[in-house]
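Protein modeling request. Please complete all fields; requests missing the sequence field cannot be processed.
Requester role: graduate student
Desired output: 3D structure, token encoding
Chains: 1
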Amino acid sequence: MTTKISTHIHNLTSSPSMANMIKHVQSLVPVHHNYIGSNDSEYWRTHGEILDALDFHLVDKNSSILDFGTQFGFLPWMLKEFGFTNVHSCNSMDEAGTHDELNTVWNFLDIKTPFDLTVMPNIPFTLPQKYDIIFVFKSNMFWLLNDVFCYKRGEITKNWQVTDDKGEVNTFFSVYNKSQYEYFENNIKKFLNPGGIAVVQPDPFVYNTFPERFSEEKKWFSERQQIGYVKVSATQHYPNNENSDYFIIRKDG
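Delivered output (253 residues):
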């Protein structure tokens, strides 16, 4: 594959076949209709830019790849469409909350059934094998919802989403700190083959918005934003490109 992967992604996500597939998936899981509808070429542009920076079009089609937190499984499906033969995925069934609906979509997309995995800060996790590439795209896995409390009219709850008087949903969360990312990095490296990489994109990337608050984290990220890194463009879905930032974990060959 000599054409940049972003071109392949754009062509696929702009195609009638993709539109028809999205329409069918929406009919399978109508409760997620609007969310699934956002999977257009503009939504996937950030993925394409990141993969181009990694020269992903030169990656061996037999490379072992894991999509971490796949949800509906669109990325494994795309990679399969591009000819990759060893693509795996995982999802947190505890957090997804719609396993039957997701299973319906996975079967329709004809991808390997994702294995169940929930990652918690500073707690070891195990993967079934080692991989050449691990993708953690647009992930809220690094939210610390257990550290968020809601106090209303004398009552304390764990509510972290509130709909205001305009009908807009407000989401509240805390995020990983440097030591928690270090723990995650050391853990995930155990499941990378020599020379392997993990592309990690906490979503949204709040660390750029509050640089003084996250000065240690910013320095740690910068050390992992060298080879294969690019500042992604702003998109319709992410007007502020600082919120789409990412870093790369590498295992020495």
